[in-house]
Write a structure and sequence with these properties.
By secondary structure, this protein is of the alpha+beta class. The chain contains 10 helices and 9 strands. The strands form 3 sheets. It has a 5-stranded mixed beta sheet, covered by helices on one side. The chain starts with 5 loop residues before the first helix and ends in a 21-residue tail after the last strand.
């Protein structure tokens, strides 16, 4: 099967558009001339007028694509004076080409006799000098239109390049932010493992094995920005299992999840650093321990996630990675369509993290029970 090259397709499309445009103009001009002749009672035959103007504008149609090509290659930018002079001088070959093509297509139309003349050198010269003003206006119009089209295409291309660059930069920032979470999470978890090495080596070894499984799970999604809420909650469950080995009964967890939201798409590792903050700064430094509550529901086409936890005593200040990272990722992914708030309610001894983002829910999302936390983590 013969495949038409892209360059040839562009040439054919350019000539087809040019011919269609100029022939449409020929019909309008023919009818206008015919109507004017009738008003002043001049003999006029519409078919003859249509043929005269159709041949004339068909000649212009043949010359239009080359001008668009030349303007596309050498628009009036940079060396503006020189190129303007070049396009001014370009009218000479344009007018000569117009006269030659028009002369070859049909003989001249003699208005006095309303008939076709003979092809002679004299009629060729007639086409050259007698249509000077008309072809000049047409030439200027084509050159201006070609420049307008060229600048429009270049503007569109620059806008596309700019958007692609912004998308690449945003994607790079998102990958950097996501990569930032793993060493932060690993650092905090290894600190927990280190506290058990001297007191409970078996538990410390189990924590390391669980940690390896958890990291393998986090790598499973690769560079995906979005995962389902179910997958994110499964990761949170695994992390809380890990912390349960260290904190025991001091860690209590409860969850209220609308079953409809398990298929909602959220940024990968969005909830884990917030849960981690709740454990490290809210529960782990309290002798009595505390609780964490996770709520998720849809309201007004937005997914709302609330994470509450008790505040126990004074914790060492962290690096601020979890909260700052959450705000930055939501900004890059959703712009102003998502929000994040973090509140420390000292009077009630509770910390609250509130997330609201567009609810993109898979239509065939599997529904889960309202509370699917492991039994050992339930209050």
């Amino acid at each position: 099967m013969w495949i038409v090259p892209a360059r040839l397709r562009r040439i054919v499309r350019g000539y087809a558009l040019s011919i269609a445009f100029w022939l449409a103009a020929a019909i309008l001009v023919s009818y206008q001339t015919y109507d004017q002749d009738r008003r002043i009672h001049l003999p006029a035959v519409f078919t003859n007028l249509l043929l005269v103007y159709a041949i004339r504008y068909l000649t212009i149609a043949f010359l239009t694509p080359p001008i668009f090509y030349l303007v596309g290659r050498w628009p009036v930018t940079g060396a503006a004076v020189r190129r303007c002079a070049g396009y001014a001088l370009g009218y000479v070959p344009f007018s000569l080409a117009f006269a030659a093509i028009r002369w070859l297509l049909l003989p001249p139309w003699i208005e006095d006799t309303l008939s076709w003349g003979q092809r002679t050198v004299q009629t060729l010269l007639y086409f050259t000098y007698n249509t000077f003003a008309d072809t000049l206006l047409l030439y200027i119009g084509i050159v201006v239109a070609a420049h307008a089209y060229t600048y429009f295409v270049r503007g569109q291309r620059q806008e596309i390049d700019r958007l692609e660059l912004l998308q690449a930069l945003s994607q790079s920032e998102l990958q950097a932010l996501r990569a930032q979470l793993r060493p932060h999470f690993l650092f905090n978890t290894l600190q927990g493992v280190s506290t058990l090495i001297d007191t409970d080596r078996v538990a410390a070894q189990t924590m390391l094995v669980t940690l390896a499984t958890l990291l393998r799970t986090s790598l499973k999604h690769g560079s995906a920005d979005l995962v389902s809420l179910r997958e994110e909650l499964d990761f949170v469950d695994s992390y809380l299992n890990l912390e349960k080995m260290r904190l025991g009964r001091r860690l209590q967890v409860r969850r209220q999840i609308d079953p409809r939201v398990y298929g909602a798409l959220i940024p990968q590792l969005l909830l884990q650093p917030l849960i981690e903050n709740a454990v490290v700064h809210g529960i782990a430094n309290s002798r009595e321990g505390g609780w964490i509550e996770v709520q998720a529901y849809v309201r007004d086409d937005r997914l709302h996630v609330a994470i509450r936890n008790t505040i126990g005593g004074e914790s060492q200040p962290g690096l601020g990675v979890g909260i700052a990272n959450t705000r930055a990722r939501l900004k890059f992914l959703y712009s102003d369509d998502a929000s994040f708030e973090f509140q420390l309610q000292r009077d009630t001894g509770v910390a609250l993290a509130l997330l609201a983002l567009p609810a993109f829910i898979a239509p065939a999302a599997e529904k889960a029970p309202t509370d699917s936390f492991p039994a050992e983590l339930r209050t």
